[in-house]
Amino acid sequence: MAFTLEELAGRFGGDVVGNSAQRVVSLAPLDQAGPQQLAFLANPKYLAQVETTRAGAVLISPDDLTKLASSDGRNFIVTPNPYAYFARVAQAFIDLATPKVAPGVHPSANVDASASIAASAVIGPNVTVEAGAVIGEHVRLDANVFIGRGTQIGAGSHLYPGVVIYHGCRIGERAIVHAGAVIGSDGFGFAPDFTGEGDARTGDWVKIPQVGGVSIGPDVEIGANTTIDRGAMADTIIETCVKIDNLVQIGHNCKIGAYTVIAGCAGIAGSTTIGKHCMIGGAVGIAGHVTLADYVIVTAKSGVSKSLTKRGVYTSAFPAVDHADWNKSAALLRNIDKLRDRIRALEAAVAAKPQGDA
Amino acid sequence: MAFTLEELAGRFGGDVVGNSAQRVVSLAPLDQAGPQQLAFLANPKYLAQVETTRAGAVLISPDDLTKLASSDGRNFIVTPNPYAYFARVAQAFIDLATPKVAPGVHPSANVDASASIAASAVIGPNVTVEAGAVIGEHVRLDANVFIGRGTQIGAGSHLYPGVVIYHGCRIGERAIVHAGAVIGSDGFGFAPDFTGEGDARTGDWVKIPQVGGVSIGPDVEIGANTTIDRGAMADTIIETCVKIDNLVQIGHNCKIGAYTVIAGCAGIAGSTTIGKHCMIGGAVGIAGHVTLADYVIVTAKSGVSKSLTKRGVYTSAFPAVDHADWNKSAALLRNIDKLRDRIRALEAAVAAKPQGDA
Amino acid sequence: MAFTLEELAGRFGGDVVGNSAQRVVSLAPLDQAGPQQLAFLANPKYLAQVETTRAGAVLISPDDLTKLASSDGRNFIVTPNPYAYFARVAQAFIDLATPKVAPGVHPSANVDASASIAASAVIGPNVTVEAGAVIGEHVRLDANVFIGRGTQIGAGSHLYPGVVIYHGCRIGERAIVHAGAVIGSDGFGFAPDFTGEGDARTGDWVKIPQVGGVSIGPDVEIGANTTIDRGAMADTIIETCVKIDNLVQIGHNCKIGAYTVIAGCAGIAGSTTIGKHCMIGGAVGIAGHVTLADYVIVTAKSGVSKSLTKRGVYTSAFPAVDHADWNKSAALLRNIDKLRDRIRALEAAVAAKPQGDA
Q1: Chain segment B153-169, per-residue pLDDT in tens
Q2: What's the ipTM?
Q3: Cα distances (Å, whole numbers) of residue C245 to A82, B163, B264, B278, C196
Q4: For range C291-317, the mean pLDDT
Q5: Which of A126, A192, A314 has the CB atom closest to B323's CB atom?
Q6: Where in the numbering of this chain does the Mannose-1-phosphate guanyltransferase C-terminal domain appear (chains A, B, C) (predicted)?
Q7: Searching chain C, which residue's CA lies closest to the CA of residue A316?
Q8: Which string of DSSP letters, residue by residue, matches C122-157?
Q9: Do residues B193 and B264 both lie within one domain?
Q10: Same domain, A82 and A109
Q11: Domain hosting residue B203, numbered range
């Protein structure tokens, strides 16, 4: 349960400065790390801690290394992004510490004879895999996962307990889908078929069948209890390396561009396209049928009702203030047209006055 | 896997113009349809496409049919609502294409001996049906569905994987409940039982038992991971043909009127009554103990804190704009009372000046 | 299925006035109660109903009792908090009426040999309990619950169907966790590891492993489909008697103070600390890394972006109004800086005028 610095550099890159045979057994912050622990400097304001740390080794950027008074007798792995390096090493330690689960299908699982399950996959208790589904190598389906007919799960994916993937969906390689997420549920579409008005109205909402699927690229993570609807005709699309937090709703026929991150409780209505590398804040709402350019940032709690065609940061949320003060401002806002009218009247009155009256 | 126009008209109504023996095997948009496909004209702006389509037949309204230069050699089903007709035909094709699941109870299901399961119902793997529950004809309970004691599921309903219906609830005929939805969880009610203030406060929140149920009418659709709480004393009520999207929260003792639609991420606090034929936009929040009239529309992201007693469209959401611009406006709004005071001072100053000074 | 007033007072406190042998078989409102029912007066405005009620007994405060014209021939339990007392009695009646479930492990459950299950616990169908988990006395795990390795569930807790608790979490005594809730899913944390800009950007989001757990105190209630993420390094903490409604998201490393209540659809981003006895309204959003003082109230739909260091009520939500009126106000708000400029210009013009010109 240890790595030498040489082993880490071999696996994750970076240059070792100091003793490459130094062993580290875990990670810790600079000010707490001991001689067998690996620390990291991600923010230059903690540079002084590097001078005094007891850490066995420190992850540091080339630039920060040059700022040290001395590196004598210390060990470093020099890497342009110590924080990302830390994350990768942390994962490696977790993988060491996590009990391995033997491949195979739990006897309580219900797997259709026509489904294809890779030999290295782990199919947990009470999992259901329907006809024609394809489960890739090293996939892990935890307890009570449901995979609908014909759905494909890419190699190395991990679906946590209770995840439901409807029929006809494709999940890419190395997906992480947290518990309770639902992918491929019907999009919300109904044709009004009513006649008459008011109390005399009769008729019905007629369901629009949703015959598209959901297509998810590689390296996507999806949060707990998040929902992604299947498309009406074509697929809902989630591209490479999109990261989605908990309790997010993505409507039918949305397309989410690669590397975009979406924070918790956000909701995106149907047929909306979000560009690549966007950052959608928590509880943001985005209307249907709009397009967001690449690199758009929408701050938390904001609402987007029209397309945002230019890279930038967009906001429509107010921070909470004292309730009574807020109510006063809100009342004035409701009557802001009256303030405008009073300004107009004043402008007219001032203009009507003789300019010089001497 | 085909229908003649005559068969469709027999099943769904409408008048055939042209060759009633024409067969169609699927649906397609006007500009893509081939000679064995059925297209539809829902929006008159695409009328020109009807003149050039290669579709085997077109669904069209009587009014639009009269606008065509010629209908010679073409086939139509004439119906007042081509879009709804399209939806019904699409569903018929899906029903043809979807593998039939044999009625019966999966051996891994746990069904209490006192529950009543109709012979035509399909009870999937690992389903639990508790004592006294009643499962109607042609009901389909997918994997891991839970039906609490005494709960009734109306004929023709389909509950997707992992749906949980607590005890003592009633679901009407032909319900569609998507994966992960929870119906009948306890309403959020606690009696404060504290003494003292500040750091000296002691006591407890005492749970108010929730002994009502949830009563859901026929033809209701409920989205994935949506939650509907049971009532405190009386039932929470969802009337006929209400359509609810994903991740919606409906509090205890709400009553949602017939034909109302509620988009994703909306939340409705307890004891609120929403009229018939309302449209509640995505991420709308509605306070508890208020009443919305029939035909009220609340636009996405808005908040309703008081009753809305008149039919109309209601809004309180801002669209996101450039972050820096927004912050400037928000700061001025926070101080809008100072703008008002400056206007007042100006009005006083202007009024104090002699009106005519010649 | 009845209690005498003496039995109730023995169990829940309070002083009996009148016939302590009076039996009650259920609860009812003052104006509907019959001679074998128990009513309660929580709001003095209904005092007149106490004079005329047919109830077998009434729960009343000492103060309200003195306001009655006469208590002759009537029965009371006098208690400082009749509403909380009512809640406790109601629960006692429910406990009487609810079928007892025999302790034991359902044959379809998957319990690891190294897990510890108290003899009085009820483990339902298809439950999974992983290695090293500890399930306390009288715990009830309903169908399809998942308990990850090493997780501890405190005595007397009830987890409803489909609840998922990841590995390494601790749930306190007497917890109520409603269906579909997910506790211990990974916090949302990724280190950016990109180089280049715009279309030339390459790289990846590197997952920050989440190695903390979730630690939940006693007497906590958690709503349906709510999600609580595990911490990155240290635990996410929910203190004693916190009550959380449905569809709430709590990010990694949050700390929620004792007795705080959080209404439905609220979202709290990571590393935020909320004080004790706070009330967080429905659909409130709270940013990450902020601190709320004890006794803070945030009204429904508001957003909190900065720490709130003083007890008080905070708001940033507008109530929905007529759509056209709102749009006018919103347009003026967007241009409120122009109103301010016009006021400035007026002030300058008025100031430039001679004050007295006679």
Answers
A1: 999 999 999 999 999 99
A2: 0.95
A3: 40, 19, 18, 25, 44
A4: 98
A5: A314
A6: 107-186
A7: C334
A8: EE-TT-EE-TT-EE-TT-EE-TT-EE-TT-EE-TT-
A9: yes
A10: no
A11: 104-314
